[in-house]
Amino acid sequence: MTEIKKHLFDYLLLVTAGIFFLVALNIFKGERFLEFIFLTSFAIFYIIWGVYHHVIEDSLHLKIVIEYILIAFTLVFLMKIIIFPN
């Protein structure tokens, strides 16, 4: 709980971006290209957010950056395959 209190702005920013992402997906439901653009944009935002968060904590390492990239790639892959099938 102290982690959330310590970095409240960071987590509020991430949650707000996630909510906007879900709202955008709902608004543009059926528009496959726009859905994919929003998905990719959120994945890129997530990577940038993770790097920023760890820079502020002075705990950024290559391993952490790779972890955020892999999680974002997994999100894009699963959403593209499961939720946005052709």
Automatic annotation (TrEMBL):
Alphabetically ordered keywords of this record: Membrane, Transmembrane, Transmembrane helix
Membrane spanning stretches: 7-27, 33-52, 64-84
Top-rank taxon: Bacteria
The protein's name: Uncharacterized protein
